[in-house]
Amino acid sequence: MLRDIIRILSNDGITVGLADERGELAACYMGVAQLDVGKRTDVIDSCPKAYALSMLIRTMSPDLICADEIGSEEDFRALSQACLCGSAVICTAHGGSIDDVLKRCEMNGAENIFERYILLEGRKAPGKIIGVFNKKGERLC
After folding, report:
1. What's the domain range around 49?
2. S-S: 27 plus which of 34, 61, 70, 86, CB 3.0-4.6 Å?
3. Residues of the chain with pLDDT under 50
């Protein structure tokens, strides 16, 4: 789902910086994305996510920063820096509930980074949306 969002926004004119630490989103080979992440997406892969995020902010000035499976303190710090530099952020994070994800953000001082949270079903029904929540964890739909 994240790759599809990136591709759609990128092809619609938004410059995207993608930190693809394990190569799961773009699957780059010799510097070329093998999966379609859009024509305005710059990818940094195979390096620590926080470092890739910082490099994207400094060198590419993207409208949007994207990353998969954020969780470390360094990840949140880099995302906070991206917001301060004017980039929007779309990320995924694992959690059993919206409360789990909100607590992780709060523990890392990142409670103001995200405006919306989309909770997905998981392995039972990948990509199925359970709910959309605001930054306070209140269900919007």
Report:
1. 2-92
2. 34
3. none
